[in-house]
Amino acid sequence: MGRWEPNARGRLANVALELYSERGFEQTTVAEIAKRAGLTERTFFRHYADKREVLFAGSSQLEEAFVKAVADVPKSAAPIDAVAVGLDAIAEFFVDRRDFARRRQAVIMATAELQERELIKLASMSAALADTLRRRGVAEPAASLTAEAGVAIFKVGFERWIGAPKEREMSRFMRESLDELRTALTGN
Amino acid sequence: MGRWEPNARGRLANVALELYSERGFEQTTVAEIAKRAGLTERTFFRHYADKREVLFAGSSQLEEAFVKAVADVPKSAAPIDAVAVGLDAIAEFFVDRRDFARRRQAVIMATAELQERELIKLASMSAALADTLRRRGVAEPAASLTAEAGVAIFKVGFERWIGAPKEREMSRFMRESLDELRTALTGN
After folding, report:
1. A101, A146, B2, B103: which has the fewest C-beta neighbours closer than 10 Å?
2. Residues B87-129 pLDDT 10s
3. Which residues of A touch B118 (CB under 8 A)?
4. Which of A123, A160, A185 sits opposite B185 (nearest CB)?
5. What is the signed CA dihedral for A158, A161, A162, A163, rounded to 10 degrees?
6. What is the pLDDT along chain A (188 residues), one digit of tens a residue?
7. Strand (E) positions, A29-110?
């Protein structure tokens, strides 16, 4: 029971998502998740604070990866080009995670509470990105606007990536979304 | 008690905001709001579903005004130009409301539950705007990206408008934010 379980964390996440898809998020208990994973509830709570956290544990890592990549770009680069490098880091983060991301998205769209949580995570990402841009010397309102644009590109690019009938590299969708936004704002 | 109260709705909103600012949103009850406004709780509930609704009753009107203005622009206009007309309609909506908007914003920033609600309202605005753009014949992902950009411009422009030491027309901040975003994305 208390012994080390190889990849318990990953197993719990997969099983949780399976149950949320089958029964709905609200109808699933931690006891059921642990049981199907062949683990104890205690093990579950060693890895996740609650059943919602299973779906959002990756969000903080994602924000970190995004922001760190932007911070590491040489200061001579234009802010939007630094953000584009950050979007590549996001694409890297999601390699081999498309199936999980798709199923996670379906669960989130089905539950108002989870949609709210997702909006909070995106707002946090935008705030962290704006902060990083200001530390790169970008003035306001350009820092906040570029950050909002970066998160919008991520959001739309991500949805297109998981919605595509065949798997294609996420970075292509990110670049495409950036180009589309640029065209939408300037007409060329 | 049951009689018609002139401008009960506006008085309740002003008194509620006053109490939220003084005591905090969570610490304020509907009974206290009604009492200070010299009205009954029953009158309060004739105008607002709950104490949170006092702060968000305007959001749906705002979304409607924004979306309607965009829908009414001749179809020959570029999507972002239609959105700019919508932003002017928003500026129109907020004429004479700066003081209320500032105090409301302070209350919202102080309470996590209200911040979440605000994020939901902004997401709803973006979805409604994307829908309007699609009905104007704008394809995806341009429709979603332009809508996200429009809401980002509103958000940042609004914050700058309420944050400015002196009152200036909101439409100027909206135009400035649009120009800044354009520059951030294209470098010119």
Report:
1. B2
2. 999 999 999 999 999 999 999 999 999 999 999 999 999 999 9
3. none
4. A185
5. 110
6. 445 667 899 999 999 999 999 999 999 999 999 999 999 999 999 999 999 999 999 999 999 999 999 999 999 999 999 999 999 999 999 999 999 999 999 999 999 999 999 999 999 999 999 999 999 999 999 999 999 999 999 999 999 999 998 888 999 999 999 999 999 998 76
7. none
Taking a C-beta distance cutoff of 8 angstroms, is the pair B67, B129 a contact? yes
Q: Which residue of A has its CA nearest to B130?
A: A156
* Separation in Å, CA of A135 to nearest CA in chain B: 16
Residues B170 and B161: beta-carbon distance below 8 Å: yes
B152 to A153: CB separation less than 8 angstroms, yes or no: no
B78–A187 C-beta distance less than 8 A:
yes
Residue A10: both structure tokens together:
């990953």
Does the beta-carbon distance from A146 to B184 stay under 8 Å?
yes
CB < 8 Å from B in window 92-131 of A: 115-116, 119-120, 123
Whether residue B55 contacts residue B44, with contact meaning beta carbons closer than 8 Å, is answered with no
Q: Closest Cα of chain A to B179: distance in Å? A: 9
Distance CA B171, CA B91 (A): 5
Distance between CA atoms of residues A184 and B150, nearest Å: 11
CB within 8 Å: B177 and A120: no
Nearest CB among B123, B145, B181 relative to A156 is that of B145
Q: Is B144 on the interface with A (CB under 8 A)?
A: yes
Contact A70, A126 (CB under 8 A): no
Contact B146, A183 (CB under 8 A): no
Q: Closest CB to B145: pick one of A115, A146, A152.
A: A152
Comparing CA positions, the residue from B77, B80, B105, B70 lying closest to residue B175 is B80
User: Predicted ipTM?
Assistant: 0.91
